[in-house]
Design a protein that fits this description.
It is found in: Cytoplasm. The chain is of the alpha/beta class. Helix content is about 45%, strand content about 10%. It folds into two domains: about 290 residues, Rossmann fold (3-Layer(aba) Sandwich); about 80 residues, Putative methyltransferase TM0872, insert domain (DNA polymerase, domain 1, Orthogonal Bundle). Helix 4 links the parallel strand 1 and strand 2. It is globular, with a radius of gyration of 22 Å.
């Protein structure tokens, strides 16, 4: 399938050639960006596509891979190299990253099989519609911050450098972290720190922010770090920088990360072809919990537990490829410290999703993170009314269809 690129689809070539902060035309981007769990991701995304090609795919048929979090294209370049027949759509909301990724694809001779799109990943359905794509063979998401965003001091993502409190992944949006800190009421700040940062001292931190911003606005990462340091009792601190959870919570709020994730996962499932795979790397418990919960919707029987015969439409439509979550081994953590918290999960669509369950997934797209996390959105009818114990019992009877996945990856697959 050849991708249609309409005029209104914003791509890397239309964003502009300039980059920021010294990441110039001659920068060694491979030194900036080290993809996490690269071999495992390549195996999960491309192994079935390569097998299908060797078995004799119809002439002119090209698998389509979507990388929803393109970044500097480290994973995407490896996917295209592993599967020479594939076409890849790369989505990123950061114009600078998109331009740099496009340059890397050009330099590697892969640009003829690559379509860059400037968008947030929760626009997945709209992007595919504009490109004339109904079904895809793999959707990949790496939910971590790109190395470009972390390492550019003036983006304000890191508490290790003093910088303006920006934290926008898409620099064309208006809301910044400083706006959140200086305009949200303290109760809302407390909720954000508690829910998105799982911060024990959310209340005292929000209260102190309210007090200090009355004197002068809080506009830099150093100001915020010092404020948190003065607020969190030393006897109750977790390892690491005490501001870590507050920075995480602000970043999630500024970029709407969890709402976008909760809305993107069902879109991905609805666009998968049978045999297609959804592969997701997450880096903190809120992301991983959301991914795990979404994937479980398709791994369980959608019927009351006491039915003697399970209807075909109620059978699981996903197959678990990773049997839980893959974590980085010690070698990877030493080579790439940013991999220390990664959790990699993947499922394969093993049958068409029945209409009623497709409707449930469509409702999830608009439910947002809060509704999804509380279970208020439509989900499997058989799962909603069962206790965790009952769901676990049903799962033990349905997960026998978990897949064989390459031996090399399974050998270093710690479980969560």
């Amino acid at each position: 399938m050849e991708l249609h690129k309409p005029d209104d689809c914003q791509t890397g070539g239309r964003i502009g050639g300039g980059t920021q902060d010294g990441v110039g035309a001659n920068a060694d981007l491979s030194a900036i960006h080290t993809p996490v769990l690269l071999d495992d991701c390549v195996d999960l995304v491309t192994s079935r596509l390569v097998e299908r090609h060797h078995a004799g795919s119809p002439a002119g048929e090209h698998p389509i891979i979507v990388d929803c979090t393109l970044g500097l294209a480290g994973h995407s370049m490896a996917f295209l190299k592993a599967c020479p027949e594939a076409r890849l759509i790369g989505i990123d909301r950061d114009p600078e990253a998109l331009a740099l990724a496009t340059r890397r694809m050009d330099d590697a001779g892969l640009s003829d099989r690559f379509t860059p799109v400037h968008a947030a990943f929760d626009e997945l359905s709209d992007v595919l519609d504009r490109l004339g794509v109904a079904r895809v063979d793999a959707v990949f998401m790496d939910l971590g911050l790109s190395s470009l965003q972390i390492d550019e001091a003036d983006r304000g993502f890191s508490y290790s450098h003093d910088a303006p409190l920006d934290m926008r992944m898409d620099t064309t949006q208006t809301l910044t972290a400083a706006d959140v800190l200086n305009t949200y009421d303290t109760d809302r700040l407390r909720q954000i720190f508690k829910e998105y940062g799982e911060e024990r001292f959310a209340g005292p931190i929000a209260k102190r922010i309210g007090e200090e911003r009355r004197e002068s606005p809080i506009t830099t990462s150093a100001q915020l770090s010092r404020l948190v340091d003065r607020t969190v009792p030393r006897a109750h601190r977790a390892p690491g920088n005490p501001a870590k959870r507050v920075f995480q919570a602000l970043r999630i709020e500024v970029n709407g990360e969890l709402d976008k994730l909760a809305g993107t996962l069902p879109q991905a499932a609805l666009h998968l072809a049978v045999g297609g795979r959804l592969v997701v790397e997450s880096y903190h418990s809120l992301e991983d919990r959301t991914v795990k919960r979404f994937m479980s919707l398709g791994l369980h029987i959608d019927a009351p537990a006491d039915l003697p015969v399970v209807p075909q439409d109620a059978q699981p439509y996903f197959k678990d490829l990773t049997h839980g979550a893959i974590k980085a081994d010690e070698t990877e953590r030493q080579r790439n410290p940013r991999s220390s918290s990664v959790r990699l999960r993947a499922v394969e669509l093993i049958r068409p999703i029945p209409p009623a369950r497709r409707q449930g997934l469509a409702e999830l797209v608009d439910a947002g993170y809060a509704g999804f996390a509380r279970g208020e959105a439509a989900g499997p009818a058989g799962a909603k009314g069962r206790s965790p114990r009952e769901r676990a019992h049903r799962s033990s009877h349905t997960n026998h269809n978990s897949s064989h996945f390459s031996h090399s990856a399974k050998e270093r697959m710690p479980r969560r």
